[in-house]
Design brief:
The complex is a heterodimer. By secondary structure, chain A is mainly β. Helices cover about 0% and strands about 50% of the residues of chain A. Chain B is globular, with a radius of gyration of 13 Å. Classes of the chains: A mainly beta, B mainly beta. At the A-B interface, β4, β5, β9 and β10 of A face β5, β9 and β10 of B.
């Protein structure tokens, strides 16, 4: 079975531009979350979407936005790019909104490495 | 605000030795995850710990959870080079959705 797929794998942008990152969850997974991982640090939560609705937002500026489509794929948009937005952006999917009893971990894609010049 | 701290951040050890990575977190949670990340790669799920006293083992790795102490440990037994990677613990402190708060990671290097 295909895992979480993200595109593109690498991207180079300049300051002030905008970017759209894409994520396709594992088949049957309805929850998609986005994380930002700056080099040398742990991932930081950006958004969670479930059934096309935003269910959680991390401490990121309004330049960051996302959406989830009827097929549960998702896009992360970042406007007015800053140098500090350079990072690995990870998408994770899971079957349910919240893992209550089953201990289902989120499954991560390989990420999009975004470099801002 | 939920905080997750790991130590050590860097660990260099010889093959065959044992060592423990510690993960402390600041608020009540009953969901703790351990992930492995190889350089330039994504996160691989290792363990899911759901309750106080939970212990899980896979190969040379064993993870445990003490919710009262807000502490999880990842114990490495008889390390081999293939275990070289960065290990993250993550806590899900949400009550409605799911939001993982990660530690800084422990970069493990196993030397021959």
């Amino acid at each position: 079975d295909a895992g979480v797929t993200q595109s593109p794998t690498h991207l180079i942008k300049t300051r002030g531009q905008h970017v759209t990152l894409r994520c396709s969850p594992i088949s049957g997974h309805k929850s998609v979350s986005w994380y930002q991982q700056v080099l040398g640090q742990g991932p930081q939560f950006i958004f969670q979407y479930y059934e096309k609705e935003e269910r959680g937002r991390g401490n990121f500026p309004d330049r960051f936005s996302a959406r989830q489509f009827p097929n549960y794929s998702s896009e992360l948009n970042v406007n007015a790019l800053l140098l500090g937005d350079s990072a690995l952006y990870l998408c994770a999917s899971s079957t349910i909104l919240r893992d209550r009893v089953g201990g289902q971990p989120q499954h991560f894609g390989d990420g999009t490495r975004l470099s801002i010049l | 605000e939920l905080k997750v701290e790991q130590n050590p951040l860097f660990l260099s050890m010889q093959e065959g030795k044992n060592y423990t990575i510690y993960c402390n977190y600041s608020t009540t949670s009953d969901r703790l995850y351990w992930y492995r990340q190889d350089p330039g790669k994504s996160l691989e799920s290792l363990f899911v710990l759901l309750s106080n006293g939970a212990v899980k083992q896979e190969g040379r790795l064993m993870a445990s959870l003490d919710t009262k102490a807000r502490l999880s440990t990842l114990h490495i037994t008889a390390a081999v080079h293939d275990l070289s990677a960065t290990y993250f613990c993550a806590v899900d402190g949400e009550t409605s959705g799911s939001r993982l708060t990660f530690g800084e990671g422990t970069q493990l290097t196993v030397n021959p």
